[in-house]
Every structure is written in structure tokens, then in C-alpha cells.
Design a protein that fits this description.
Length: 342
């Protein structure tokens, strides 16, 4: 199954179809998690190319962030144009490019996290050190959001100082380019029981294992801002075949987590895993989730769908005529989405 249908914009469709990421060899049957998933046709949503984080807003709508600008866009599923926008540059401060990378919904609140990494060339980017929240208003049509509390800017310092994380040398990792071996790059966030969150790292991958860190007090960080201090649980290391976390989502029934695994740099294959959430338990690959041609970086479960997953592709670097998608005129920019059902 190759997820490469034609898109409404011919030039962009040709470019996206040419961007093959490579498929992963199948794992032995004993390590494969049933049930198999089946992909619906790929859809295109106009707006940013770099879909990097997303969360559900009820059964019909979802909100998307991209890593090139501080704007959240609300879409109605199946319609290509955004139905609402929330600019965040003034709230977040900085240069307007916070590098938003992950989101997690907890009740009527969505938490968002930036990469906390340096620039691609390894230059300091303090504007990327942001953790914040938006509150959802589902009574509005379409659903609306508003910033909650204050952005938290000290998470990287807290991670580096945490005794339980000392062996990962995150302060050293934070001085490297995010895609360099051992660099620091956050791209995953998922809800935990009790209101905590699970932070997923694209990089580093200690001893070839993906790093997950529980954040125990996200509500306190948003409420108190930089006067608070983040508290962490015991870290978890998962075998994702040498890859890091590109997105992670807790299943709606609370039974497990879905994880998109991808390379720490640009080149490499992507796969979807299911993990029980228990430390020491091995994640298992999901059959039918073929991401050939896609660059999945955002994952959400659609409420009321029986566990269907929506996966968004970050297509910013896909070229057409030598021009990357994110460099094309706004009217030609889009990201792709595929829905996976059991």
C-alpha cells in the first residue's frame, strides 16, 4: 500500500509523490501488534507545509501547528481550508518562529512544546525554549482556543538539572545542532493518567533507544510561568530500531500509546508503533501503516471513531522545480494527512 494519491494542486502533488522516505522491513510476527490498520486516501490541507504538531478538537475538527511560524490553525476534517486561526507570536514572545513540535490534549486544555533545540547550524535559539497551553472552547462554532496562563521558558534548564536524567547529559546535548549525533530535539508529547505528560525526544537516542521523560506538573508550569520548576518521573528508554520519537499519542481508552518513530536526522524510514506504557515493555510495530512518501510528524486519535488515527506529514522540505514547499507561494502550500482505521 503506497500512500501517494494525486493532490488538488498539480505541481505540489508531483513533488510530494516524488519524496519517498523508504519502508521498514517487517518484524517477526511475534513482535507485531494486532489489529492491522487500513489507510484511507491521503488528503491535502492548505496552509503551512510543515505540519509538526496537532490535536483533536472533538470528532470533526483538529488544530495544527507548524515549525515555521507561531500560528495555530483549526481545520474541519475533510475540508482543505482552515476555519479558524490563533496567532501566538505576541503571547510566546521572540521572533515568531518558536519551532512548535508537539501537542497533547488533557481535558479541555492542549499543551504544546517547542523543540528546545538550537538552529540547524548549532547556533543558540532561546526562542525555541517554550512550553505552553491553550484552552479549548467547544461551544464555539468552529471550536475556538485561547492561550492559558503564561509560557514556561525554563524546561531545558530543569531537564539538565534533574538527577534522574543526569546520565543522559542533556546540557551537553543542548549545545549541539538538533540533528547532530547526540544533539537535543523534542518532538513528542502525550497525556498521562493524572494530568501529567510524557515528553518524547527525537534526539538524543541513548544507546540507540528512544528517550521518554514524564513531566509531572504541567498545569503548575502554565499557571506560575517561570517562577515554577518542572518535576520529572523516571525516564523510559524504548527500542525503536535506533530512531527517535516524531510523535506520540495516548489511545483514547487509555490502554496504550501510539508512537511515530523516525530518524534523528533527515534521511531514514518512519514507522508506527504501539506501546503498552509499561516501563520495560517492548513497543510493537503496527501492520498496515506504510508511510512511504510521507514524513509523519503529528499523530492524533479521532474522538468517536473507534480508535482511528490521523497522521500529518511535514512536507516543508519537499521540492518542486527545485523549490521547497515552504518556499512556494502561500496559495501552493499544503500538508498531507492520512487516516488509519482498524
Amino acid at each position: 500500500m503506497r500512500l501517494l494519491p494525486a493532490l488538488p494542486m498539480p505541481a505540489l502533488a508531483l513533488a510530494l509523490a516524488a519524496a519517498a522516505a523508504g519502508a521498514e522491513p517487517a518484524l517477526p510476527d511475534a513482535a507485531v501488534a494486532p489489529p492491522a490498520l487500513h489507510a484511507e486516501p491521503v488528503a491535502a490541507y492548505r496552509g503551512p507545509c510543515d505540519a509538526s504538531a496537532a490535536a483533536a478538537l472533538g470528532a470533526d475538527h483538529f488544530v495544527v501547528a507548524n515549525d515555521e511560524e507561531d500560528v495555530l490553525r483549526v481545520y474541519r476534517r475533510g475540508r482543505p481550508q482552515a476555519v479558524r486561526q490563533l496567532p501566538l507570536a505576541a503571547f510566546l514572545g521572540g521572533d515568531g518562529e518558536t519551532d512548535l513540535e508537539a501537542a497533547a490534549a488533557v481535558g479541555q486544555r492542549i499543551y504544546w512544546i517547542a523543540s528546545h533545540g538550537r538552529s540547524a547550524k548549532g547556533k543558540p535559539r532561546p526562542d525555541r525554549q517554550r512550553f505552553f497551553a491553550t484552552d479549548i472552547d467547544l461551544s464555539a462554532q468552529p471550536p475556538a482556543m485561547a492561550p492559558a496562563g503564561a509560557p514556561y521558558r525554563r524546561l531545558l534548564d530543569d531537564l539538565a538539572a534533574a538527577p534522574t536524567l543526569a546520565r543522559f547529559r542533556l546540557a551537553e546535548a543542548a549545545r549541539l545542532a538538533p540533528e547532530a549525533p547526540g544533539g537535543l530535539n523534542i518532538e513528542g508529547l502525550a497525556a498521562l493518567p493524572g494530568g501529567g505528560l510524557l515528553i518524547g525526544f527525537r534526539n538524543p537516542v541513548p544507546n540507540g533507544r528512544a528517550l521518554l521523560v514524564p513531566l509531572l506538573n504541567p498545569a503548575e508550569l502554565v499557571a506560575a510561568g517561570d517562577s515554577a520548576t518542572a518535576r520529572f518521573g523516571e525516564p523510559v528508554l524504548l527500542n525503536l530500531r535506533g530512531r527517535g520519537v516524531r510523535s506520540i499519542e495516548r489511545a483514547g481508552d487509555g490502554s496504550s500509546f501510539w508512537i511515530v518513530a523516525g530518524p534523528t536526522a533527515d534521511a531514514g524510514a518512519f514507522s508506527l508503533y504501539r506501546w503498552s506504557g509499561r516501563a520495560g515493555a517492548a513497543p510493537t510495530i503496527a501492520r498496515g501503516a506504510d508511510f512511504t512518501g510521507l514524513r509523519p510528524e503529528a499523530l492524533l486519535e479521532i474522538p468517536g471513531s473507534g480508535g482511528a488515527l490521523q497522521v500529518l506529514s511535514d512536507d516543508g522540505g519537499v521540492e518542486s522545480g527545485g523549490v521547497a514547499c515552504k518556499e512556494r507561494p502561500a496559495a501552493e502550500q499544503a500538508f498531507r494527512s492520512v487516516t488509519l482505521r482498524r
